[in-house]
Amino acid sequence: MSDTTLYVFIGLVVAILLIGGIAAFVVGSRGKALPPADTVDRRLDDLREHPEHEPTPTGDGLEPVLPEPGEIDESDADNAEPGAVATAEPEAVAPEIEAPAPTAGRLVRLRARLSRSQSSLGKGLLALLGRDRLDEDTWEEIEDTLLTADVGVTPTQELVERLRTRIRVEGVADPEVARSILREELVTLVDPSYDRSIAAKGADGAPGVVLVVGVNGTGKTTTVGRLARVLVADGDTVVLGAADTFRAAAADQLQTWGERVGVPTVRGPEGGDPASVAFDTVKTGKEGGYDTVVVDTAGRLHTKAGLMDELGKVKRVIEKQAPVTEVLLVIDATTGQNGLTQARVFAEVVDVTGIVLTKLDGTAKGGIVIAVQRELGVPVKLVGLGEGADDLAPFDPEGFVDALLS
After folding, report:
1. Model's pTM, two decimal places?
2. CA angle 124, 127, 132 (to 5 degrees)
3. Rounded distance between C-alpha atoms, residue 304 and residue 197, angstroms
4. Which residues have CB under 8 Å from 157's CB, separation 6+?
5. Which contacts qualify for 161-166: CB closer than 8 Å, 24 or more apart?
6. Could you report the per-residue pLDDT of 168-224, keeping only the tens digit for each?
């Protein structure tokens, strides 16, 4: 073979190898095998029937993006991006209206809870009175037990004197008889003669106006929300006033309470004038024909003269619209004798007509019921006995005493 022929042969071999390498590179770079013939036929048929599905070149130019049914709202099809998913705005869901528990029998239902917290008082007294011999040391222990429970000095002395006289005169030796005498004397001390109903109705077409006051941390706003439930359960129509404008969450909290039982809330700007909110609430109550207006006020220290004067202003402004029919002072039962000091100052400013004792189930100092009534000359009308929405109960003297001694 001549040199020329050899070079021609080598050139052909190199050319064949180059062509084969280029072909392999092209096939590999495409990365995909051609689809089967039946798949191509289906796609062609789809494009004939739906020309809008024709793919737009996207770099590889092979796979069209076909929208799934329901992805694009037909009403927005002209403006929608290809492949966009339509999202519906969530509908506002009205809060479900709750039916509050009936007020009748609430204290009976909660008596077990109250008796557990007050057991040391009742058991201590019954154990002392059940002794075979009641000497001076025993009577001193009875006094100490009552004082520890915050009954107060004067009421304690009166109760011990009456017990000593009756047990001596009647010659009591049976512990059950002694228990009966103790119950009668405690009921007398709690004083069932008080009118403990809530003055929730007004006169001459005006709504009843309930003003709720107290120091910080007593559970005042929660009490207002629970009171709304009590009134609704009794069949009254109610509007709430969020006149605690200094605590950021107070108005939201109160509004949530109201919405749960279908009760509207009047509120003002944060840091606004509480007297203005109270005025607007009573005005709303009058114009809307509501039975009762309940106004929540900011918690304030009884030692702050300026804040107490402001509370007096709130009451005066309300009375330009309608008389205040009830002023409820909320006291934390766990504060004991300190609650009496608070009560005195508030009574001087706003003429308190009733007491709400909260957290009564969390203390063994149930004697505060007796002490605060004696201090103010006004009754305990409501008691809070737990964390539940309906754990506010009208106060029943006999039920309370039975819980102490159960």
Report:
1. 0.74
2. 150
3. 31
4. 143
5. 162/188, 163/129, 164/134, 164/139
6. 888 777 878 888 998 999 999 999 999 999 999 998 889 999 999 988 888 899 999
Q: Which helix (H) or strand (E) holds 297?
A: strand 292-297
Separation of alpha carbons 65 and 52, rounded Å: 11
Alpha-carbon gap, residue 343 to 341, rounded angstroms: 5
Q: 54-70: b or e for each residue (b if 16 or more CB lie within 10 Å)?
A: eeeeeeeeeeeeeeeee
Radius of gyration over every alpha carbon of the chain, rounded to an integer in angstroms? 40
Contact call for residues 384 and 223 (beta carbons, < 8 A):
yes
Residue 382 CA to residue 358 CA, distance in Å, equals 8
Count CA within 13 A, CB hemisphere, residue 316: 7
The whole-number average pLDDT for the span 278-306 is 87
Output the pLDDT for position 195.
Answer: 94
* Main-chain phi, psi angles of 293, to 5 degrees: -115, 130
Q: Indicate the fold that domain 208-396 takes in CATH.
A: Rossmann fold (3.40.50)
Contact 103, 230 (CB under 8 A): yes
User: How much helix, strand and coil, in percent to the nearest 5, is found in the chain?
Assistant: 50, 10, 40
What does 45-83 look like in DSSP terms, one character per residue?
HHHHH-GGGPPPP-SS-----PPPTTSS-GGGTTTPPTT
DSSP code of 376? Answer: H
**Phi, psi for residue 45 in degrees, rounded to 5:** -60, -40
| Token code pair at residue 306 | 């300026």
Taking the domains of the chain in order of start, what are their residue ranges? Answer: 106-190, 208-396
- In this chain, the answer to whether the domains covering 106-190 and 208-396 adopt an identical fold is no
List the structure tokens of 115: 């008796």
Question: What is the CATH number that goes with domain 106-190?
Answer: 1.20.120.140
Average pLDDT value over all residues in the chain: 78
> Which of helix, strand or coil describes residue 356?
strand
| Longest CA–CA separation in the chain, Å | 154
Q: Assign 111 to helix, strand or coil.
A: helix
